[in-house]
Specification:
- The chain is about 0% helix and about 20% strand.
- The protein has 2 helices and 32 strands.
- It is globular.
Length: about 425
């Protein structure tokens, strides 16, 4: 008569016993976050009353048994982060009640079964980080209740089926890191009402499509493609954007003044492009209270020049920033003292930027190598308990290295004018 069996987050090992199929009244089974190995038993298909199955975060091997079709009441199926192999059985298309299907982070392979298109109650589908091949079946266009579709990090290829434009409930689409050879985003994408779109490393080329200017996207990730040219002026119309990643492309030349209109932008990644000109347009971005304060900025590996505005640490958009990466840009000038006012900043990376001046205080992760920094290392910087990364090599620093508990390698202090003390040789002179 058992209806609920919850054993999650223990240290159970061994395999799921075949006798599990005898629990005919079971409607909730959670064995997640254990050390379970072996295969999923065929008998599991006898649990016709089961509504939620959680086997995620184990070490289960083998294939998904074809008997899964017997789970006619199943609504939530979580089997992510295991070692499942082989293809998904076509019988999965008989799970007519299924609403959430999580199979990511396994070793599943083969083509996606077209029978998945029968699962019209499906809301969320997470299949990322497997070895699926072939095309996305046109039948996926029948999933009219689907809100999240994540097929990222597989080996899917071929043309995207235009039938996907029927997915009017779809909010998140992630096809990143598949050899799709997209060239460009199909125009029928503008028929979707997406909030989050990720097409990183899918073979895109050329410029951004104009229809993006009228979209309501809050997340856009087009990184690691071959996009080129200038950022279009209409990018300032994308005022709903909170996350933008255009890194690892060939964009140039400068950041447009229209960037200031991205009131909701929180995370920005433009690293590894060919941008030139000033960075100050980004730092002066407008916000729409209480939203729009930066969390992270990464514009490393471009050709931006300085100087960095002295008031950077007093700009409202920068109040809450935790990570600022400006490395490998010919910025020149000095490090603005106001950076020390960014009280939430944890990561500051200014490697090879030609900056000079003193090291700012109140930081917890500092990479400042290959610059023209002078003066001594502030004690209240290097003694921070939370310090995880520190590198000031190849500068003009001098004096005693302050005592510190962090495990900082010798290489992080080398090639300065006169630094001494642990882990470098003692400052004592004979």
């Amino acid at each position: 008569m058992l209806t609920n069996l919850d054993l999650h987050e223990n240290s159970f090992n061994g395999s799921i016993p075949e006798s599990i199929g005898n629990l005919k009244n079971l409607n909730y089974l959670d064995l997640s976050s254990n050390q379970i190995t072996g295969r999923i038993p065929e008998s599991i298909g006898g649990l016709s009353s089961l509504e939620q199955l959680s086997l995620n975060q184990n070490m289960i091997t083998g294939s998904i048994p074809s008997s899964f079709s017997g789970l006619i009441s199943l609504q939530f199926c979580l089997m992510s982060e295991n070692k499942l192999t082989r293809s998904i059985p076509s019988s999965i298309g008989q799970l007519s009640s299924i609403q959430r299907l999580f199979l990511e982070n396994n070793q599943l392979s083969g083509e996606l079964p077209s029978s998945i298109g029968n699962l019209t109650n499906l809301n969320e589908m997470f299949f990322s980080n497997n070895n699926f091949t072939g095309k996305i079946p046109p039948s996926f266009g029948n999933l009219n209740n689907l809100q999240i579709l994540d097929l990222s990090r597989n080996r899917l290829s071929g043309e995207l089926p235009s039938q996907l434009d029927k997915l009017q409930q779809l909010q998140t689409l992630d096809l990143s890191f598949n050899p799709l050879g997209l060239t460009s985003i199909p125009n029928w994408f503008q028929n979707l009402k997406l909030f989050r779109l990720a097409l990183a490393n899918t073979g895109m080329e050329g410029q951004l499509p104009n229809w993006l200017s009228s979209s309501s996207l809050s997340t856009l990730d087009l990184s690691s493609n071959a996009l080129t040219g200038e950022l279009p002026r209409w990018i300032g119309n994308m005022t709903s954007l909170s996350f933008l990643n255009l890194s690892n492309n060939g964009f140039q030349p400068s950041i447009l003044i229209e960037f200031e209109n991205l009131w909701h932008l929180v995370d920005l990644d433009l690293h590894s492009n060919r941008f030139t000109g000033s960075l100050n347009t980004l730092f002066f971005k407008q916000i729409q209270l209480p939203l729009g304060h930066y969390n992270s900025i990464d514009v490393s590996n471009n050709m931006f020049n300085g100087p960095i505005d002295e008031s950077i640490g007093e700009r409202t958009a920068m109040d809450y920033i935790t990570s600022l990466e400006l490395s490998n840009n010919p910025l020149g000038g000095t490090i603005p003292k106001s950076i020390g006012k960014l009280g939430r900043l944890q990561v500051l990376k200014l490697v090879e930027t030609g900056l000079s001046g003193m090291i700012p205080v109140e930081l917890t992760s500092i990479l400042l190598s290959k610059n023209n920094l002078s003066g001594s290392i502030p004690e209240n910087v290097i003694s921070l308990k939370t310090l995880q990364e520190f590198d000031v090599s190849n500068n003009r620093l001098y004096g005693q290295i302050p005592p510190h508990k962090a495990l900082i390698p010798v290489s992080s202090f080398l090639h300065n004018l006169g630094l001494c003390g642990a882990p470098l040789p003692s400052c004592k002179r004979s």
